[in-house]
Write a structure and sequence with these properties.
It contains nine helices and twelve strands. By secondary structure, the chain is α+β, with helices and mostly antiparallel strands. Strand 6 and strand 7 form a beta hairpin.
Length: 454
């Protein structure tokens, strides 16, 4: 079924998230997270869920199967020795990057997996869920409960990837299909003037306590990924942080001023990417004729999960590479914040924002600033920082295959903070570190400016 008649915006996407609170019982929380994944693919055809648009993306069907495999491999295999998979071959098909587990289907060829079908994958998930329900019905040791929570947080990551990968897939289709019917847009209003919020800096404690009984710095459940710790001290100089992310209108000014044509604004690898890829605007921006957006093209439009839409000038700009964010900051006479500056600015704020359950599924315009508190620190767009994704002092990966989760990727990537409009509610905390390669653009990634205060 081609998505020429997209599902309405008020479908079942939001309801399953009601049970994802950290205070929910493990079984209720498990059901809620798993139900949300299933809701994300409602209305997709088997073809929609099978095709892979690029090496960095994965088919929706693969995300569904891989997250089921994760519970099989790391929870059920240890806690229920008599458990048997629906199909032993799935261990090869749906392992992602766990070398310790064994060989796996090559990532760039996931789109060739026409079988199992979407219906088969959903049956596979149901079988895993039935086994997990039996497991969750009884008392469980703390180590098993922590593995289950890791699996749920892992699945939330894949829920976001499922949405961003679908957007990239549909953007390749000349028919520009919509994933969902667009909700009514909010009333148009300009972004508030860019204000600056000062921070004294000094000696600051950063990160989460990632011990077995961690609470300090982690989310409400005490959970944090291993890469978010150990908690440690850093020394920060006084700095100022912009009260909101950079907007589409401000990015249009950068384009109009020749931002993509001025090599002096770009890091060497960034300029090489601009030349090689022909970048003239953020990913998905286009003109009224559907061509790649250029500086003389008028008001930009963009491919979204609702099809091609006019861009709200006041909304945060999205789908930027690190290279683009860095070039803009240089053009503006500012810089990107470090991840430590970002965390200090955000750590006392409630983790609220425009997340996936809002139904917006796109960045929304900034509200008026309030009382010197930065806005949109959570949700809307991931914010690139100037910090490479490297280990904190004293970092030790977990033993076994789960130790491959983060540590082996601590090379050549940059940290993003704050979540996006595709991030599930309940997945974030101040210490959360996302990471991508500097040339990658298909995530909802934007930027917030910073400057030295002295």
């Amino acid at each position: 079924m081609l998505m020429t008649s997209p599902l309405p915006a008020d479908d079942a996407l939001v309801a399953p998230l009601a049970g994802t609170s950290a205070d929910a019982a493990p079984a209720q929380r498990y059901r809620a997270v798993r139900a949300y994944s299933a809701a994300l693919v409602e209305g997709l055809s088997d073809a929609d869920a099978t095709v892979q648009s690029m090496d960095d993306a994965s088919p929706a069907k693969w995300h569904l199967a891989h997250t089921a495999w994760f519970f099989e491999e790391f929870v059920l295999a240890g806690a229920r020795p008599a458990y048997r998979s629906v199909d032993a071959r799935y261990r090869y098909l749906f392992n992602s990057y766990y070398e310790s587990v064994g060989p796996r289907h090559p990532r760039p060829r996931r789109g060739l997996l026409t079988r199992p079908s979407l219906a088969d994958v959903l049956r596979y998930r149901a079988a895993v869920d039935a086994a997990m329900e039996k497991l969750l019905a009884g008392p469980l040791p703390g180590a098993t409960l922590r593995l289950i929570e890791l699996g749920l947080q892992h699945e939330m990551q894949h829920q976001e990837l499922l949405l961003t990968d679908l957007l990239h897939l549909f953007a390749q289709n000349p028919l520009r299909p919509a994933y969902r019917e667009a909700p009514d847009p909010p009333p148009a209003a300009p972004a508030p003037p860019l204000a600056w919020i000062g921070h004294a800096g000094g000696r600051c404690r950063i990160g989460a306590d990632t011990g077995a009984d961690a609470k300090d710095g982690a989310g409400a459940s005490g959970f944090a990924f291993d890469s978010e710790g150990p908690r440690h001290e850093v020394l920060l100089r006084p700095f100022r942080l912009a009260a909101r992310p950079v907007s589409n209108a401000e990015w249009s000014e950068f384009i109009a001023d020749g931002g993509y044509r001025r090599p002096t604004l770009w890091l060497a690898d960034g300029w090489k990417a601009v030349q090689a890829e022909g970048w003239t605007a953020p990913l998905y921006w286009e003109d009224e004729a559907g061509e790649a957006y250029r500086e003389d093209a008028g008001a930009p439009r963009a491919m979204t999960l609702f099809g091609v839409q006019a861009l709200d000038p006041a909304a945060p700009v999205a789908h930027l590479s690190y290279f683009e964010a860095d070039a803009y900051a240089r053009w503006a006479g500012k810089r990107l914040p470090t991840e430590f500056e970002w965390e200090i600015a955000a750590r006392d704020l409630p983790v609220r924002g425009n997340f996936a359950d809002s139904g917006a599924l796109r960045p929304l315009a900034a509200p008026q600033p309030s009382g010197g508190v930065p806005g949109q620190m959570y949700g809307d767009v991931w914010e690139w920082t100037a910090s490479p994704f490297v280990a904190y002092p004293g970092f030790r990966p977990a033993g076994g295959a789960v130790g491959e989760y983060n540590g082996k990727f601590m090379c050549n990537q940059f940290v993003l903070r704050g979540g996006s409009c595709a991030t599930p509610t309940g997945h974030l905390r101040p210490s959360y570190r996302n990471f991508f390669y500097p040339q990658q653009r298909w995530q909802f990634a934007g930027l917030r400016l910073a400057e030295d205060a002295s």
